[in-house]
Amino acid sequence: METYIDDAAEIERLCKRFREINERYDPDLDKIDEAFVQKLWNEQRFFDTNMASIDRRTIRVLKPGVWNHNEGPDFMHAEIEIDGKLHVGDVEIHVRSSEWYTHKHHLNSRYNRVILHAVYFDDDINLRIRLQNNKRVPTLELLKWIAVDTGDLYGDTQDAAMTDGFCRITGKQLNIEVLKGVFESLGRERFLEKMESMRLLRTRLDFEQLLYEGIMEALGYERNSKPLRELAQHVPFTDLDQKSELEIQAILFGVAGLLPSQREKPLPPEVTDDPSVVAVEELWRRSEYAELPPRMTEARWSFTGRPLNQPTRRIAAMSQLIHHCQGSLMMYFLPLCEKAVTADTKRELQTIGKELRTLLMLEPTGYWDKHSNFGSESKHKIGLIGKDRAVDIIINKILPIAYIWALEADSQKLQEGILKLYGVGSKSTGNKIISKIDEQIFTEEQQMRHLEPTAKIEQGIIRLYKNYCADRLCDLCPILEHGAVFLEES
Fold it and tell me: How far is CA 400 from CA 170, 392, 422, in A?
């Protein structure tokens, strides 16, 4: 007996559920971030193990690789058959295929081991991307091969990142002193890993540009870190030397595509006619950068989240910092780091840390002392860089780069001094990972505050989660391995 579908609405609904493999599709990419695509690749949730790249080469994934949560390619040591030939190397993940070039991976030797460029959506004619060594590798558009509805998968991914799982430590009696040592050791490992990843960039960047790009990235949080680093690559630090704070703002805002005159939706006259805005627009028109083709647009930036974290305020903060450093970011911060060599007490080291924060937490002036975006005014004057963000920049950017300086200067004393500074650095207000570990291993009787957390301990907690908990490597858990859990009496 044959069944016929005569409901037009039902027919339309069923047709929308299926599409040809080669059909072009424009997804809502505002709802997709790179972490989602990385999760998709890591879980290999595709309906066919035999896929095809954009240039029609057959792709068969034997091993997706080890997820790299630090700088560099997103997955390392992958094993992939391309047209039947085994390739071993790295995989880089992007939301859009065009991001390979906008992120300048083709100029970075760190990506020369990439064997496959896996993207959620091909928005460019990008059949084979070029590496820094001029080799070409295929691009795989994952959207064609997803085995489940995108919306459902995205929701699962967001929830799965912090789902509760069985943990052998939960509810156990902890040896706080041993546990503290475990986290400090992990924190040191994480610091040195970050330093080594930044050190690779020294093959093409001087210290000024390295620190400039690093601070820009740290200012962006998750949503705007990559665009801010990209902006720093479009406008090198040397191009901003000897310029006024307003000139620096004009160039950075203009290249970022964030000036009022560049917005997709026109801003009201009370915004565009403001004397400060008029001055920045005029300086941009006089800039040599204004004569170049557009580099970035408003669509590249995220304006969700707290107003004080808007990318416009972050760019204003960087402009102020560059102006104050008087031509050298390294020499702005390094002398304070060097003071740690002769610091004998914890109090002295903490004072140096406070002075470093002060260098970052400059008093806002002009238009941005009460604005989060062009036209968005606040009643109160608030600093462009808060304490928590300053701590993050010091721990994750300034100290690792200063350590590289110490290595290249062959100064063992400075290396030790920087590690001492790192060891007493102020803790943050926490994040999802720290909260997760807090909930997972601590009890009402034994709380995380008993560790007297520092930035180093928090970094150790993050390393524990990313390197062990996230991949369920419970048998290798450093907490158990080093006896930080008291054995239960039989």
Answer: 33, 12, 9
Strands 85-96 and 75-82: antiparallel
Say if residues 186 and 306 touch (Cβ distance below 8 Å): no
CA 104 to chain centroid, in Å, comes to 15
Both 306 and 248 in a single domain? Answer: yes
Per DSSP, the three-state class of 76 is strand
pLDDT at residue 105 in the model: 93
Residue 241 backbone class (left: φ over 0; alpha: ψ -120 to 50; beta: rest) = beta
Please indicate, yes or no, whether residues 202 and 281 belong to a single structural domain of this protein: yes
Closest CA to 39 of 156, 152, 148, 165: 156
How many residues make up the chain in this entry?
Answer: 490
Q: Is the same domain home to 56 and 190?
A: no
Whether 252 is covered by a domain: the verdict is yes
Over residues 260-293, the pLDDT tens digits come to 999 988 899 999 999 999 999 999 999 999 999 8
378 vs 355: CA distance, rounded Å: 28
Q: What is the pTM of this model?
A: 0.68
Asked if residue 5 belongs to a domain, the reply is: no
Is there a contact between 257 and 295 (Cβ–Cβ < 8 Å)?
yes
Out of 394, 423, 452, a domain closes at 423
Pair 301, 370 in one domain: yes
Instruction: In whole angstroms, give the CA distance from residue 2 to residue 385.
Output: 69
Are the C-beta atoms of residues 219 and 385 closer than 8 Å to each other?
yes
Reading the block at residue 32, the tokens are: 């997709």
Confidence band of 146 (pLDDT split at 50, 70, 90): confident
Task: State how far the Cα of 272 lies from the Cα of 269, in Å rounded to an integer.
Answer: 5
Is residue 212 within 8 A of residue 329, CB to CB? The reply is yes
Domain around 127: 20-160
Tokens (6 digits) for 241: 């030397």
Contact indicator for 142, 120 with CB cutoff of 8 Å: yes
Task: Count the Cβ atoms, other than its own, within 10 Å of residue 365.
Answer: 12
* Phi, psi at 262, each rounded to 5°: -100, -5
303 and 419 housed in the same domain: yes
Q: Using 50, 70 and 90 to split pLDDT, how confident is the model at 317?
A: very high
**pLDDT, tens digit, 9 for 90 and up, residues 385-442:** 999 899 999 999 999 999 999 999 999 999 999 999 999 988 877 788 888 888 888 8
In this predicted structure, what is the pLDDT of residue 490?
41
Distance CA 183, CA 185 (A): 5
Q: Among 423, 447, 474, where does a domain finish?
A: 423
- 60 and 149 in a single domain? The answer is yes
Tell me: do 150 and 204 sit in the same domain.
Answer: no
User: 198 and 139 share a domain?
Assistant: no
Whether residue 10 is contained in a domain is answered as no
Residue 363 above 90 pLDDT? no
